[in-house]
TrEMBL record:
Listed CDD domains: EGF_CA
GO CC terms: membrane
Protein name, UniProt field: G-protein coupled receptors family 2 profile 1 domain-containing protein
GO MF term list: G protein-coupled receptor activity
Protein species of origin: Geodia barretti (Barrett's horny sponge)
Signal peptide boundaries: none
SUPFAM superfamilies named among the record's database cross-references: Hormone receptor domain
Sequence ranges assigned to domain G-protein coupled receptors family 2 profile in this UniProt record: 107-172
InterPro entries documented for this protein: EGF, GPCR_2_extracell_dom_sf, GPCR_2_extracellular_dom
Length: 383
């Protein structure tokens, strides 16, 4: 293509083969080349540092985008109002005309519209999504955290309807669930290795499920938490024998996941999940399974275990299945539930021994002549 004379402004172009043009920029005293491009490409262009270039977004959108070579077709171009996007991190092209290396994709964002009569004002919702202003009867959507799906919301008579977020997941939860499923599935490996990996999964899950300030975790993320907890309990139930207190998965870590997932901030997430998939009921089932597991690994008959924190209390007594009593009352002493969050608790529960034996028979996996009973409490009125 040749080389232009120094134009003084640091940019120039020369004709290439047929209908193409080579664009060059002077960077730090040297020429940086972009590949030859069709002459028909006449979009707005300005040279950035290091030979980068950027284009304006379409009318009605704000931000910046970078055009890729026209012959390239990216999947985002089919669905996005702003095709071939790279945000402010524009792509650098090499001088040999090779394909650009795509950096992070950042779509152009619709400019804020003032709500018309009957419209809805945008802002952050309980999930942390930032919604634009919307006209009456308008449906708007925003990308989910993992970028795979989109959440939507409709404005009716000036009032936002509940956002549709059930298809949304966060990347960290998806990755942790995928890893957990691999560990649960590969049953041919050494038991200690699997237990250590399970302990690491629970550590990662505990970090992910930490309360979001003023926000609820997404229903999909709570569902992933449920699935991981269920898999962990199944693994422990199947591999550990009654009376065995040797485990690489700390009981306190399992309890902490349950307690943290029940943070009041997540009330909306659990209610949404319950309406759609019965997820809250499944979570309660898993907490009951956890109590039964605690009784299984209890060192001896009549041993008592109580775990308590701000959102969750679970107490377990292991006793002989041959117990000759009309009923068992738990807790026997309220002192075992002393906690500032539970100072007002005065309830007791009496469970007929026949019901305990029936429950033991239903459980199947719990054997060795022992049964258990427990009291599970939650602090939040709306959960």
């Amino acid at each position: 293509c040749g080389r232009p004379a120094d134009l003084g402004g640091g940019a120039g172009s020369v004709d290439c083969d047929g209908d193409s043009k080579l664009l060059l920029f002077a960077v730090a005293g040297a020429w940086s080349r972009l590949p030859c491009r069709p002459r028909l490409w006449l979009g707005p262009m300005c040279a950035g540092r290091d030979g980068r270039y950027e284009c304006s977004c379409p009318a009605g959108h704000g931000g910046k985008r970078c055009e890729a070579v026209l012959r390239l077709k990216r999947s985002a171009a089919e669905t996005s109002p702003c095709p071939c996007l790279n945000g402010d991190d524009c792509t650098n092209f090499s001088g040999d005309g090779s394909e650009p290396k795509t950096t992070t994709v950042s779509p152009c964002i619709p400019t804020q519209k003032l709500p018309s009569d009957g419209g809805c004002t945008g802002g952050k919702d309980v999930w942390g999504f930032v919604w634009p202003n919307a006209a009456n009867d308008e449906t708007v959507d925003v990308p989910c955290p993992d970028g795979q799906e989109r959440a939507s919301r409709v404005c009716i008579n000036g009032v936002w309807k509940a956002a549709q977020v059930l298809e949304c997941d966060s990347t960290g939860f998806v990755e942790t669930l995928t890893k957990a499923e691999e560990v649960f599935r590969e049953d041919s490996r050494d038991l200690n290795v699997r237990l250590n990996e399970t302990a690491e999964i629970m550590r990662s899950l505990l970090q992910l499920i930490q309360p979001r300030e003023g926000l609820s975790h997404l229903p999909g993320d709570l569902n992933s938490t449920n699935a991981i907890a269920s898999g962990v309990l199944t693994l422990l139930e199947d591999l550990l024998v009654p009376g065995s207190n040797v485990t690489s998965v700390p009981n306190q870590r399992i309890f902490a996941v349950f307690n943290t997932a029940l943070h009041p901030n997540n009330a909306q997430g659990w209610m949404t999940l319950q309406d759609a998939k019965g997820g809250a009921s499944k979570f309660l089932d898993n907490m009951e399974r956890y109590g039964l597991y605690l009784s299984l690994v209890a060192p001896d008959t009549e041993s008592r275990t109580v775990h308590q924190d701000d959102n969750f209390v679970i107490g377990v007594i292991r006793h002989s299945a041959m117990l000759n009593a009309s009923s068992v009352t738990f807790p026997e002493s309220l002192d075992e539930l002393e906690n500032t969050s539970y100072s007002a608790i005065t309830a007791q529960i009496s469970i007929p021994s026949t019901l305990l034996l029936d429950r033991k028979a239903e459980g199947g996996r719990y054997h060795g002549g022992h049964a258990s009973h427990g009291l599970l409490l939650h602090a939040s009125d709306n959960m």
